Amino acid sequence: MNPPRPAAPRRSAAAPGRPAPPAAPPEPWSDKDLDRLQALLDRVPAPLTPLDLSALDGFLVGVILQPRPVPLSAWWPWVLDSEAGRSAPADYDGQGLLNLVQRRHRELKQAIAERQWFDPWVFELDDEASPSETVLPWVAGFALAADEFPALMGLDETQLTEPLAQLYMHLDPEDLEDADALLEEIESLEPPTDLSEAVESLVRASLLLADVSQPLPTRAAPRPGPRRGGPPRR
Question: pTM surpassing 0.90?
Fold first, then answer.
């Protein structure tokens, strides 16, 4: 089954020669919005196993950070079925879920493109959970995207190692096969002392990865104008 087709975005008319206005800040997510999104994920029919909210957020970041855009038809099945990316039944109506997921995708894409802070969907567990255990679902979602869409991981390893270590330090080392340089970098890192520090590292690592996979264009240095007057006096 193909994913529901999103509505085409409307483009505002701009006067010729004028730069496009800056994108409006995204509408904050309310508890009601998040509850509705979780309810729609819970309604995905078995045997599909959808991502939960935190894993979904990390997964979308992993998709967005690819050096080339990943089409919706490629990543949407993994939202519905995190185990195998299976297609939903023909009678499943996922349009409402798609609309909310694409809303989050758009705001994450905007934040990453502009190298702006974003609030990862990380939810506190019980009082005994460590910071790493709390952010693990988010990192697992990111790792799923990195595994299924390997273009990001195929970039320069020397540039990827530091930011990836900040994310994958929360995974079981046994899950990181043939990654000696990454494991060595992880061993050099101190674990986060609290959840705030762990969440900050998720954002920092994501933006560092964006610098590798989607480098911002550098502005050309201005050319010197013609020299006025005579030669300088000694």
Answer: no
